[in-house]
Design a protein that fits this description.
Elements: H1 11-19, H2 25-37, H3 43-58, H4 65-75, H5 80-86, H6 95-110, H7 123-128, H8 133-183, H9 188-197
Helix pairs in contact: 3-4, 3-5, 3-8, 4-5, 6-8
Length: 198
């Protein structure tokens, strides 16, 4: 294999790299920023894609975030790669905060009673058998309702920031390309033709 490691990663190293970046958070975030800004699309498409991914991350539909982000990005003319990158807003470090906030906002909107701190009866069996109806009312419904305003709010903020960043980045790149083109020496044959024509 061409790019195989000399020493394969252990299971513990793979878990660690999935939860914590190899280098640093700053470097990883900078890398993701560059990946988003360098996409070849309009600033609206990039920003709409990221916003769709961020919105999908706030829903409790784990396992369907990418599909939901792609569907939303398609509806609002967003970039699919940007939507996938926007889904990275949900990760093992942010999910506990996202789930707690969507649950609390949804419970407040629905004016739902707080469960008494115990799991509903038969929760383990319901999860093992994928019986969603057992956890719908006490947990999933408030989280789904709460995910809409929070997802829209964070999606809108990310849209504004990414659109501004993409517009600035693309304008600076176009300016640098023009400066490079202007600084290139012109071929001697073309200048002599122009002088003869004059």
């Amino acid at each position: 294999m061409l790019f195989r490691r000399r020493q394969p990663e252990t299971r513990l190293q793979r878990v660690r790299s999935a939860l914590w970046p190899r280098r640093s958070w700053r470097r990883s975030l900078r890398y993701m920023q560059k990946r988003v800004l360098r996409l070849r699309a309009t600033p609206h498409a990039i920003a709409a894609g990221v916003a769709a991914g961020v919105f999908a991350t706030f829903t409790p539909l784990i396992g369907f975030h990418f599909l939901l982000a792609f569907a939303l990005a398609y509806c609002i003319a967003g970039n699919m790669a940007a939507a996938a990158l926007g889904c990275l807003a949900g990760n093992p470090l942010t999910f506990p905060f996202i789930w707690a906030s969507t649950y609390e906002v949804g419970r407040w909107v629905l004016r739902a009673e707080v469960p008494n701190g115990e799991a509903p009866p038969g929760l383990q069996a319901a999860l093992a058998q994928f019986n969603i109806s057992a956890i719908w009312e006490p947990y999933l419904k408030p989280m789904l309702v709460g995910s809409v305003p929070l997802g829209l709010g964070f999606g809108l903020v990310s849209y504004v920031l990414v659109r501004w960043g993409a517009s600035s980045f693309q304008a600076a790149r176009a300016r640098r390309a023009q400066e490079k083109a202007a600084a290139r020496p012109r071929p001697a044959m073309m200048t002599s033709i122009r002088q003869d024509a004059a």
